[in-house]
Amino acid sequence: MASLHPQNVGIIAMDIYFPPTCVQQEALEAHDGVSEGKYTIGLGQDCLAFCTEVEDVISMSLTVVTSLLEKFKIDPKQIGRLEVGSETVIDKSKSIKTFLMQVFEESGNGDIEGVDSTNACYGGTAALFNCVNWVESTSWDGRYGLVVCTDSAVYAEGPARPTGGAAAIAMLVGPDAPIAFESKLRGSHMAHAYDFYKPNLASEYPVVDGKLSQTCYLMALDSCYKLFCEKFEKLEGRPFSISDSDYFVFHSPYNKLVQKSFSRLYFNDFLRNPSFVDEDARKTLAPYTSLSSDESYQSRDLEKANQQAAKHLYDVKVQPSTIIPKQVGNMYTASLYAAFVSLLHNKHSSLAGNRVVMFSYGSGLTATMFSFHLQEGQHPFTLSNIVTVMNLSGKLNQRFEFPPEKFVETMKLMEHHYGAKDFVTSKDCSYLAAGTFYLTQVDSMYRRFYAKKDTTST
Question: Which residues, other chains included, contact 195 with Cβ-Cβ below 8 Å and sequence gap of 6+?
Answer without folding.
Answer: 208, 209, 212, 213, 215, 216, 363, 364, 365
